[in-house]
Amino acid sequence: MRASAKIFWILGVFFLVVAIAYGIITARYEPLGIETVGFPAMLALAGLAFMIAMALSIAVRRHDLGASEHLDAEVSDDHGVQGSFSPYSWAPLWAAVGGSLCFLGVAAGWWIFAFGIIFAIYGVLSWVLEFSSGQHAH
After folding, report:
1. What are the residues whose beta carbons fall under 8 Å from the beta carbon of 113, sequence distance 6 or more?
2. Which residues span the membrane (predicted)?
């Protein structure tokens, strides 16, 4: 996990440098100024790489190192619990349906986008609050 975190930190810096260079070049040579799709997309790509790198770095600090950190480790050395997952949860399905309806709504019609937002909010909230047992539970 430590190597993956380093890779994503490097990717984040690379995408940030490329985005800044792209913004400068398009601002200088485009007749209308900075290109309005590529520059924000590259900034978002850098932000996503930084978020993944941060999450992996935090996970490395919190948990013990797995077998993937040792050069002489075998695949079978990395057995055991990989996380806490809810096997019978419907929340990922509703979140995925909401996301797909949002994308379809952008292409086909904005009224579909509204239904996608409703499904996505329901799916994400139920996924986040899935294991919540209330504020005052003991």
Report:
1. 101, 102, 105, 106
2. 7-25, 37-60, 93-122
Both 60 and 8 in one domain: the answer is yes
**Domain-located, residue 52:** yes
Which residue range forms the structural domain that includes residue 49? 2-65
Whether 110 shows a pLDDT value over 80: the answer reads yes
* CA dist 37 → 3, 23, 34, 105, 124 (Å): 32, 11, 9, 19, 27
Q: What is the 3-state secondary structure (H, E, C) of the chain?
A: CHHHHHHHHHHHHHHHHHHHHHHHHHHHHCCCCCCCCHHHHHHHHHHHHHHHHHHHHHHHHHCCCCHHHCCCCCHHHHCCCCCCCCCCCCHHHHHHHHHHHHHHHHHHCHHHHHHHHHHHHHHHHHHHCCCCCCCCCC
- Structural domain count of the chain: 2
Question: What percent of the chain is predicted at pLDDT more than 90?
Answer: 59
| pLDDT class of 79 with cuts at 50, 70, 90 | confident
